[in-house]
């Protein structure tokens, strides 16, 4: 069995470590932060009223069977995970004041019919038949299999039905315009491009698999917060004998000849191993840990980032669901701002609010709001400039007030997190949530899991098969399987 060094104790790193340890490998994890979890972050604020707890990363748990398989494969179920099914999955508030609550399964089309009329529901059902084909093709050929080059996807050309489903050259926006007549449904579909940090006008149509995974199979909240997944993974790693060093940054990948031979820690200590797994943004790997200018240049187009308000709110807000999204009048203006040159924060952004009805998240008589706005990454825009973050926080609260939810006189506190803060916390360049933006046909080709040198592997949301908790855990399975087959 091999000795393995894992860089990063995010979900991808911990999941890979658990799988490899269960297979008999000796695994050591180095994490630069003081806590495990990576982008599955948590924030706690203690006040006179009590303690507020926030998830600062993913807010929806989908495809739980992926986690179930991971824990079963590494020693048994994870009783720490307490799943709470969400209905609605998301409450959508449109510019004209209409509301649409999404849910899993065929019932969503019925809700569309009730809210927008029978023709809109008919359009959605037609799109959904297409989405099922996209999902089936994506699951079989992309999400659960290694994709190291365009040749892998080119193989779909021999399966004409699969190729037609993926629709190379078509965008998610184009797919919506072709199938959906109601502009509100088009807006709803466009939002799923942001799940990969992309502009829907440039995102590949195959990203239709993302809403299908959520709206066909459902979504859950983990009681106690989604950060409990990181706790469960860390506990599983400990039970399997994985050594995890927190607060221990890795400065570079140690290379001997043409293979990865370990890592060099901050301060210069070399730690040798047979294999290295990097659970870090691919640009950070190829720009900083293993400088590869050509690979780094190909990753320069950063995905969008997130501007976050963490709010302690007095009282209750009945018009909110667990997740509520407030759309702007001009959705395109948001993407023009974020991906423009120069980039800038949207003046009238989409605002996404998460407010969990979980006593563990907030004191009685209060709400804990996680407010997310799509934003340009650090570097494209300077979030560290004096007054910028606080000024934009004021703007976001004013936008919410204009859309009918004014909580400015009910705030107990507000904490602000910008893309610059995510960059600092996770070493993710620019604080770009999803690494490289998924634009064009290459949007389906995330950086491969096999690294630039032998015995180096990459795992996590910035590499194949993509971002989001289930895909990151699938990434870990792909890496562990490749190592096991070597």
List the helices and strands and how they pair.
Blueprint: E1 3-7, H1 11-22, E2 26-30, E3 42-47, E4 50-55, E5 61-62, H2 64-73, E6 83-85, E7 91-93, E8 99-101, H3 107-116, H4 118-143, H5 150-154, H6 160-166, H7 172-179, H8 183-191, H9 209-217, E9 219-222, H10 228-239, E10 243-245, E11 250-256, E12 259-265, E13 270-272, E14 275-278, H11 282-289, H12 293-297, E15 305-314, E16 323-326, H13 331-338, E17 351-355, E18 366-375, H14 388-402, E19 411-417, H15 419-426, E20 456-458, H16 469-485
Parallel strand pairs: 1-2, 1-14, 2-10, 7-16, 14-20
Antiparallel strand pairs: 3-4, 5-9, 6-9, 7-8, 11-12, 12-13, 15-18, 15-19, 16-17, 17-18
Folded structure, characterized:
This is 4,4'-diaponeurosporene oxygenase. The protein has 486 residues and is of the alpha/beta class. It folds into 3 domains: 3-40 and 226-299 and 447-485, FAD/NAD(P)-binding domain (3-Layer(bba) Sandwich); 109-211, no CATH class; 302-426. The protein contains 16 helices and 20 strands. The protein has helices at 11-22, 64-73, 107-116, 118-143, 150-154, 160-166, 172-179, 183-191, 209-217, 228-239, 282-289, 293-297, 331-338, 388-402, 419-426, 469-485, and strands at residues 3-7, 26-30, 42-47, 50-55, 61-62, 83-85, 91-93, 99-101, 219-222, 243-245, 250-256, 259-265, 270-272, 275-278, 305-314, 323-326, 351-355, 366-375, 411-417, 456-458. Strands 8-7-16-17-18-15-19 form a 7-stranded mixed beta sheet. It has a 5-stranded parallel beta sheet with strand order 10-2-1-14-20, covered by helices on one side. Strands 5-9-6 form a 3-stranded antiparallel beta sheet. The longest helix is centred in the N-terminal third of the chain and has 26 residues, at 118-143.
